[in-house]
Amino acid sequence: MKVKGKHVILSFVCIVLGFMISFSYQFTKSENANGNVTDRQWEREYEYRNILIAQEEKNRNLQQELFEVQEQVRKVEESLGTQEQVLFNLVEDVEKLRMYVGEVRVQGKGIEVTLEDASYIPSEANINNYIVHESHIHKVINELLISGADAIAINGQRIFHDSFILCIGPVISVDGTQYPAPFTISAIGDPDILNAALNMTGGVVDHLVSENINVKVEKKQTLALEAVLSKGNE
């Protein structure tokens, strides 16, 4: 019985010891397994982090390229805008030149200046001192041009930088066409400025009146000066 009891105790001890060894083995295996998973996760995270860093760097490079392209587009647009403005200015200059040479009809605000011979001429006086001469017309035209008139006509006939005005007795010849008094000088431009320039104290109107010329200045909301044929078509 004593021997059998010892066998039972020894068997029990062996069982417990085996269980402990098995548990220790399983625990150690589990720890090792957990350690391997953690390493793989760290490797993956490291790999993902490197990929993310590379992608962020690529995004920054692309963003920089985008900024450079946008800057190039802005410069091109600015250049096109400048060219468009230059073209607009050229077209505007061409239209002004066509207007100045009489190739186009001109319409706009302006004034009309009417010059007439004196209404009363003393019988003993020299009649030439009481009629309109080319010098009077020149004074009016020069003042209008200085004051910014865009186009001018005498009795409806456009005049230009090379026009000639000549007094022939009681009539005035404008580029070879004769007109009797009264003489109406039409000018396209700012009516207020043109009127003020003519009527300033000691100005053109005062000078004409002092030389016995009847002068009437009227502001016009609408004036139309017709185009003229070129010399080659006349």
UniProtKB/TrEMBL annotation:
Residues 52-79 form a coiled coil. Keywords: Coiled coil. InterPro entries: DUF881. Signal peptide: none annotated. The keyword Coiled coil applies. Belongs to the UPF0749 family. This is DUF881 domain-containing protein. It comes from Bacillus salitolerans.
